[in-house]
Amino acid sequence: MQGLSTQNYAAGISIITFVLVVTISMAYYQFIYIPAVNEKPIVAAAILHPPQTTQINILPGSSQPSQTKNFEPKQISADLGMANKVIWKNTDSVPHSVTSDTNYNDPTFGKFNSISHIGLVPPGQIFNFTFTQAGEYPYHCEPHPWMTGKVSIQKGKF
């Protein structure tokens, strides 16, 4: 009989320990790990809301493979904190996308891909994206892969 009560006592301690470890693990995951992973970086206000914008036009006829001018300008440079918000205006009669060649994912604004944000850019509409890091960002149009361009963002005074 003595062995049976010792066994029950050990089993009870094991169950309590297991429940306690699971509870602590879940609390850590929910209140510490998840908020830390999902936290967005602190970015200067001038980078988030630059005083100027940079505009790129999607030219009429861009959906035709024979047209060599699609994005105008094809390559742009902008300074971080000055004009790092880029606006693409679709002046064509066909919807287009602005899709990163490198699957760039900005820490603040997410994927550099119009499809992820608004879908294809309809005729006469715009897509804008604010870059919060310096770098080279090549892109293309998903339905029309011959349409390519590149955004270069240089470090400004930040």
Give the total of beta strands: 10
Number of helical segments with 4 or more residues: 3
Largest sheet: 4 strands, mixed
Q: What is the SS-derived class?
A: alpha+beta
| Overall pLDDT confidence | 91
Total domains = 2
Question: How do the helices and strands follow one another from N- to C-terminus?
Answer: HHEEEEEEEHEEE
**CATH class value of the largest domain:** Mainly Beta
Give the radius of gyration: 26 Å
Strand order in space, largest sheet:
2-1-4-8
Shape: elongated
| Distance linking N and C termini | 76 Å
CATH homology-level superfamily of the largest domain: Cupredoxins -  blue copper proteins
Classify the fold: give the CATH topology of the largest domain: Immunoglobulin-like
Q: What percentage of the residues does DSSP assign to strands (E)?
A: 25-35%
Q: Helical percent range?
A: 25-40%
CATH arch. level architecture of the largest domain: Sandwich
Summarize the structure.
This protein has helices at 2-38, 45-48, 114-117; strands at residues 53-58, 71-72, 75-79, 85-90, 99-100, 105-106, 110-111, 126-130, 135-140, 148-154. The protein is α+β, with helices and mostly antiparallel strands and 158 residues long.
